[in-house]
Design goal:
Distance between the termini: 30 Å
Structural class: alpha/beta
Number of domains: 1
Helix content: 40-55%
Largest sheet: 7 strands, parallel
Strand order of the largest sheet: 3-2-1-4-5-6-7
Radius of gyration: 17 Å
Shape: globular
Number of helices: 8
CATH topology: Rossmann fold
Strand content: 5-15%
């Protein structure tokens, strides 16, 4: 790989990215940062109202020619195929896939019903598989691509309060990342994961008491921000990470040290 000037290393101009779960939280922050870096971005989510509102806001800043907001359930194969077709028809390529869409449940195993188990595994793991499978077809043809899976510290430690369905889905995503990186490496496609710790993306997820307890466990003494996860995505999507594949990047404030 030829060396690039430092000014070009975070420049994604001409590239196309798909961010699932792009209507809020980490997905929204990631979409905006990739737009700032020059990419054209597709955001997809089954939460249509928040997604379309985010799309309108991003259009006002970056222009309608650089953003597509398309409601889709990533656990539905036909919906994923439709998103990929729209992306390909509009821009003819896909360079970056960020598998961020997901659901979380809390409570002991007795509280996790078979229906909720299937729902969480579908959104968090099957959705990542379907999107990566579709993206891989385009990326192999290009001999270039970046797939970035948003896992979780829960997939490494079991987490603090998430249910077994969520932890299992995120642990599966980390293993999925390792195997997919092996399969796609010959085509110039890297596949990596990011394992966030507790991120301040949805205040409703933690009571004030639980929030305080979690912060006391984190060496840096605070929750992370969605933007801080987006920075890690941008790094892995950039030429700076061209020799990194099959890795899981911890972004957790020091709560897990490996």
């Amino acid at each position: 790989m030829s060396e690039q000037p430092i000014s070009q290393l975070l420049n994604l101009q001409g590239q196309v990215a798909l961010v699932t779960g792009g209507g809020r939280g980490i997905g929204r922050a990631t979409a905006e940062l990739l737009l700032e870096a020059g990419a054209r971005v597709v955001i997809a989510s089954r939460g249509a109202e928040a997604l379309l509102a985010a799309g309108r806001e991003l259009e006002l800043i970056y222009g309608a020619d650089r953003i597509i907001a398309t409601p889709a359930d990533v656990a539905d194969e036909a919906a994923v195929a439709s998103v990929m077709a729209r992306t390909s028809e509009r821009w003819g390529r896909l360079d970056i896939l960020v598998n961020n869409a997901g659901l979380i449940h809390f409570g002991p195993i007795e509280a996790i019903t078979p229906t909720s188990w299937a729902e969480v595994l579908g959104a968090n793991l099957t959705g990542a598989y379907l999107c990566a499978r579709a993206a891989a077809t385009l990326m192999r043809q290009q001999h270039y691509g970046r797939i970035i899976n948003i896992a979780s510290i829960s997939g490494q430690t079991g987490g603090v309060s998430a249910g077994v369905d969520y932890a299992a889905s995120k642990g599966g995503m980390i293993a999925f990342t390792k195997t997919l990186s092996r399969d796609l490496a010959p085509y110039g496609v890297t596949v990596n994961a990011i394992a966030p710790g507790q991120i301040d993306a949805d205040p409703a997820l933690l009571s004030p008491e639980a929030r305080q307890r979690v912060m006391q466990m984190i060496p840096l003494g605070r929750l992370g921000t969605p933007r801080e996860i987006a920075y890690a995505v941008l790094f892995l999507a950039s030429p700076m990470a061209a020799y990194i594949t099959g890795a899981t990047l911890d972004v957790n404030g020091g709560i897990l040290k490996r």
